[in-house]
C-alpha cells in the first residue's frame, strides 16, 4: 500500500511537470513526463493488486497478461502504456526525432483519460498519496 501511494505521488508530480513543460512549449520533454506519469499510475494499481513490479517490461507483462483481461481496466490500457513508453524512449534518446505540438496535446489527452481512470481505481481501493 505504501509503495502504491508513492507511485501515486510520482504520477502526480510527473503530470504537473508535463503541464508546465507544455506551457513552456517544451513539447518533447512534456511527452516524456506525461508518459512517466501514466507508468506510475499503472504501477500503483498493480502494486495495490499485489503484483511486485519494478521495470516497464514487468509492468506491461502483468498488465497485458494477468490484469487487464480481468475486466477491471480498459483493454487498450496496455497498448497506450506501451506507446507512451516508446515515446518516452524517443523523447529521451531519439536524436533527430521530431514531435509536433499537436501530437503532444493529442497524446496527453489520451494519457490523462487513462490516468484519471487509474486514479479512480486507486481511490476506490483506498490508495492515497504518501506525501
Order of helix and strand elements from N to C terminus: HHHHH
Provide the gyration radius in Å. Answer: 14 Å
Total count of helical runs of at least 4 residues: 5
Oligomeric assembly:
single chain
Count of separate structural domains: 1
Can you walk me through this structure?
With 131 residues, the protein is mostly helical. It has a single domain (2-124), classed as Four Helix Bundle (Hemerythrin (Met), subunit A), CATH 1.20.120. Helices cover 74% and strands 0% of the residues. The protein is built from five helices and no strands. The chain has helices spanning 2-23, 27-48, 56-67, 77-93, 101-124.
What is the strand and helix layout of this fold?
Elements: H1 2-23, H2 27-48, H3 56-67, H4 77-93, H5 101-124
What are the key terms here?
single chain; 131 residues; mainly alpha; Four Helix Bundle (Hemerythrin (Met), subunit A); 5 helices
Give a quick summary of the entry.
By secondary structure, the protein is mainly α. It has a single domain (2-124), classed as Four Helix Bundle (Hemerythrin (Met), subunit A) (Up-down Bundle). It has 5 helices and no strands.
Amino acid at each position: 500500500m505504501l509503495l502504491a501511494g508513492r507511485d501515486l505521488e510520482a504520477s502526480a508530480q510527473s503530470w504537473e511537470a508535463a503541464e508546465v513543460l507544455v506551457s513552456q512549449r517544451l513539447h518533447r520533454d512534456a511527452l516524456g513526463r506525461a508518459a512517466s506519469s501514466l507508468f506510475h499510475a499503472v504501477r500503483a494499481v498493480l502494486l495495490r493488486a499485489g503484483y511486485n513490479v519494478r521495470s516497464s517490461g514487468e509492468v506491461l507483462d502483468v498488465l497485458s497478461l494477468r490484469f487487464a483481461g480481468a475486466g477491471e481496466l480498459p483493454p487498450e490500457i496496455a497498448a497506450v502504456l506501451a506507446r507512451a513508453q516508446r515515446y518516452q524512449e524517443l523523447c529521451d534518446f531519439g536524436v533527430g526525432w521530431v514531435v509536433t505540438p499537436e501530437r503532444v496535446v493529442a497524446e496527453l489527452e489520451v494519457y490523462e483519460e487513462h490516468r484519471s481512470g487509474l486514479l479512480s481505481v486507486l481511490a476506490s481501493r483506498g490508495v492515497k498519496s504518501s506525501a
